[in-house]
Amino acid sequence: QQQVKQSPQSLIVQKGGISIINCAYENTAFDYFPWYQQFPGKGPALLIAIRPDVSEKKEGRFTISFNKSAKQFSLHIMDSQPGDSATYFCAARGDDKIIFGKGTRLHILP
Amino acid sequence: DGGITQSPKYLFRKEGQNVTLSCEQNLNHDAMYWYRQDPGQGLRLIYYSQIVNDFQKGDIAEGYSVSREKKESFPLTVTSAQKNPTAFYLCASSIAGQVRGGSYNSPLHFGNGTRLTVT
Questions:
Q1: Mind listing the pLDDT tens digit for each residue in A22-46?
Q2: Distance between alpha carbon B40 and the CA centroid of its chain, in Å?
């Protein structure tokens, strides 16, 4: 019940395409859903986050879609660029704890 | 510039030796955390501290120890009791100490990690 399941493990997208990473959770008490971006040899950095009272949040080319009834949320990267190549982690907070997904390695082909 | 500094970036140790990883922050954050990252495993919480002179075990605390004598500093010691110490260690902080792991208004800020190799 404390897991956050992230898919796919790895993703290859052509430059200019849409990258989609999905996460699912079980605990309905989760109240905060951040996405982190990590470049090789660096620490993760907060990319975008959403609360469960909204269905979508957009920041530039990055959008979180949130489906509360399905207990799923996803990250969409529009017009994907080679500089977006990184590992992305979804996370969820509940019961005073942050749970991270296992990460998705995204590679954007030039 | 405010941020979190982890040192060293790479660390090599022989099996059986204790090793201490440094984490310093100048963000004036109350809460600090240590995570361990292994390939394909996501981030797992080792220890966290919500306030100076207080800290709690996370999900994988066995074989690790910490101290929080100053607000800015949260060093992690990997002891010889840790069975698989080779990993990428990440230190993080957040503004508010009362919410473990950050929140919408108090997200986690990470350092750039220390890669520890034990042979």
A1: 999 988 888 889 999 999 999 999 9
A2: 19
CA distance A42 to B112: 4
Pairs across A and B, CB distance < 8 A: 59
pLDDT at res. B101: 61
Partners of A21 on chain B (C-beta within 8 Å) are none
Give residue A75's pLDDT: 98
Best mutation target among B4, B21, B43, B94 (most A Cβ atoms within 10 Å) is: B43
Which residues of chain B are modeled with pLDDT < 50? none
Average pLDDT, integer, range A71-90 = 97
Provide the CB-side half-sphere exposure for A35 (13 A, CA): 28
Are the beta carbons of B28 and B94 closer than 8 angstroms? no
Distance from CA of B65 to the nearest CA of A (A): 20
Task: Compare all CA atoms of chain B with the CA of A39 and give the residue at the minimum distance.
Answer: B112
Of A43, A46, A100, the CB nearest to B42: A100
Looking at residues A1-26, what average pLDDT do you find?
A: 94
C-alpha to C-alpha distances, B87 to A52, A94, A103, B40, nearest whole angstrom: 33, 26, 16, 12
